[in-house]
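Weekly structure sync - notes
Attendees: PM, LS, DV (DV joined late)
Agenda: review two folding runs queued last week.

Item 1: First target. Sequence and structure tokens pasted below for the record.
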Amino acid sequence: MKVLTANEKTIRIAVQTVEKGGVIVYPTDTVYGLGCDPFNREAVKRIFTIKGERTKPLPILASNIKEAEKIAHVTEQAQKLAEKFWPGPLTMVLLKKPSLLDVVTCGLDSVGVRVPNHPVALELIREAGGLLVGTSANKSGEKPPQTAEEAARQIGEEVDLVLDGGFAPLGESSTIVDLVMGIPRILRHGPVKVDDILEE
């Protein structure tokens, strides 16, 4: 396991690791993320193994809304929320498209997507093809890490590379809103407040 300080060169190394089917830890605006190519079945399975007791679907981080549309049906309602809160700490659960592997969503017909507000994360995701698995870099049930060191302590020996981009500024996981049925349903409270979502 390598811990590399994030810069143009090391982001490229991280991208190459993902392209080869590897699993990496990387900084986002909320907490540190555990990522891989969402279209690589073996890499996705490895993330579930690293997380441990996880039975929930894996969220996907996108570099922009157009990339999100490759794997999810972005409704007019979702588009409005994206315009207001992306890039940022709002994950939207939307109907998934057949292009996304069922293993990512644990067989569900929906997927959580988000565009993070973090320069390293955005460059990494963009260079890696526009989409990256983006679950928190911790064991299931443990506290999501705010630093590369915390992530390395929890799961460092099980990943191929840790990209250190400093302190994750928000320090808490994103708000999750389920839009599948059209009526917003908050699945997890976080930095984006419920009232702000329901205003839309």
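Item 2: Second target, run right after the first with the same settings.
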Amino acid sequence: MNKVVLVGAGGKMGCRLTDNLKDSKYAVSYLEVSEAGLSRMAERGISASRPEEVVPDADMVIFAVPDVAIRAVTANLVPMMRSGAIGITLDPAAPLAGHLFAREDISYFASHPSHPSVFNWEPEEKAHYDYFGGIAARQAIVCALIQGPEEVYLAGEELAKTIYSPVTVSHRITIEQMGILEPALSETFGAAVVSVLKEGVDRVVELGVPKQAAYDFFLGHINIELALLFGQLPGGQFSDAALKAIEIGKPLIFKENWKDVFEPESVKKQILAIT
């Protein structure tokens, strides 16, 4: 299973994958249609192939395209794939929305990076500032077999470890669980909360606190609070005063039903909205 076609090779995500695939053990062909993407590929010393020349012979086809384009792209390319080949998506939204072209004689696999943890210790500067991952910083990944025989999972996971390298651990989950992690946990909930954190700091600055003082004070406190809550300081705990402040803050900031964002119907609505 070493013949790979990367669709969208010149896109934002595609370029990251291209960089990790071009010197790997895989025999890779690259597909791209945009002029900007083709230009980025040229900068990397690679050129685009014709779909009809490479897709029918591929063992695995990676769809590194936006969620809103998956339906059209798979409808065009999946009929070209050989029986037994694997289609790989980099996000759970399109599969859960039913946007993958239906073929019972091929397999589908999904994988997504967790991105480097805030608790990573990276001794080299290149890794330290690799916030996205896939360049030098270590990260975990999640993988799911959507359809196909069990041996497909191992082949998909091995490829996922290459495109997201360096990988510390690969977590096997279901595609439904991946949808809870993204968009529900990481974006609908997490990104919303983090954006409000930034708005809170901005408000403090508006009230007259020097910007750098606010940033230093808040980011330092975020660091210790995350460490306490996520088990990085065994035995550590919030002070009584901090616990009282949390008790005051939660009902002022959050709706009582905020956890409904993780319920199946809510996750489904989120997925349909972004696809």
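Discussion on item 2: The two ends are 30 Å apart (CA to CA).
Action: LS to circulate a short write-up before next sync.
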